[in-house]
């Protein structure tokens, strides 16, 4: 009797030990899973930061690698100073005006200008339905191909709805270029971009046409292959790039 009682007690003890082991393994597995999710979240956050940096690099690389037309003495022409009249027309949309600092870069046959601040003494610059005129002195880039217009997303109301831009060579006023935008430069409105590349046209009635494209993106079937980052695309074609 005593022996049987002892064995039963020992069996109970073994059962308790096994339950403790199983519980510890379960807790360890749960902690590992939580740590894995935390690591995955960190990776996604890092991925988001990297995506944004790559987006900025697209513009920086284009500025560094921009190739002017192959023509004689283009460098001499580029280093001659030129005065351009830049006219911006803000659209007639609710909240279209901006308090942010606006900048423009000119792309032409001889090269590109540095980023130019369109500074105004008027406090009403870039207001809704308003036309603002600036005269900038910079490198001679020849015939304009496109411009890059942007703002620094500062101020009480940074969002800006730009209707169009008109640029004239002050010395040769027959060289007048038109740039259609009709879009937001905003982090909150539209597609969330506040940098725009606009193609040039010398005929205001023949502005560059805008097409709609459908971009299909296929994410790989791999662990943690998805992203929470902002994703961007540039399309390059025979008539220019987006």
From TrEMBL:
Highest taxon of the lineage: Eukaryota
Renumbered residue ranges of the record's region Disordered: 1-48
Residue ranges with Basic and acidic residues bias: 33-43
Pfam families from the UniProt entry: PLAT
InterPro entries xref list: Inner_ear_hair_cell_LOXHD, PLAT/LH2_dom, PLAT/LH2_dom_sf
SUPFAM superfamilies assigned to the protein according to its UniProt record, in alphabetical order: Lipase/lipooxygenase domain (PLAT/LH2 domain)
Annotated PLAT domain residues: 82-199, 211-242
Compositionally biased tracts (Basic residues): 23-32
Protein name: Lipoxygenase y domain-containing protein 1
Species, as recorded: Goodea atripinnis
């Amino acid at each position: 009797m005593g022996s049987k009682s002892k064995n039963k007690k020992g069996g109970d003890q073994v059962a308790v030990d096994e339950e403790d082991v199983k519980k510890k393994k379960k807790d360890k597995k749960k902690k590992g899973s939580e740590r894995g999710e935390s690591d995955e979240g960190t990776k996604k956050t890092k991925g988001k930061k990297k995506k944004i940096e790559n987006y900025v690099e697209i513009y920086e690389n284009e500025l560094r690698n921009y190739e002017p037309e192959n023509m004689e003495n283009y460098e001499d022409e580029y280093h001659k100073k030129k005065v351009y009249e830049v006219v911006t027309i803000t659209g007639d949309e609710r909240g279209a005006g901006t308090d942010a600092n606006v900048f423009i870069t000119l792309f032409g046959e001889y090269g590109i200008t540095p980023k130019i601040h369109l500074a105004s003494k008027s406090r009403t610059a870039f207001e809704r339905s308003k036309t603002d005129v600036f005269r900038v002195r910079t490198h001679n880039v020849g015939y304009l191909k496109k411009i890059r217009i942007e703002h620094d997303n500062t101020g009480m109301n940074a969002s800006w709805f730009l209707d169009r831009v008109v640029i004239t060579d002050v010395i040769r006023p027959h060289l007048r270029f038109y740039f259609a935008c009709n879009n937001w430069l905003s982090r909150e409105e539209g597609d969330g971009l506040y940098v725009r590349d606009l193609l040039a046209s010398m005929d205001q009635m023949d502005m560059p046409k805008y097409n709609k494209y459908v971009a299909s993106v296929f994410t790989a079937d791999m662990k943690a292959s998805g992203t929470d980052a902002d994703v961007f695309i540039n399309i390059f074609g025979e008539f220019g790039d987006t």
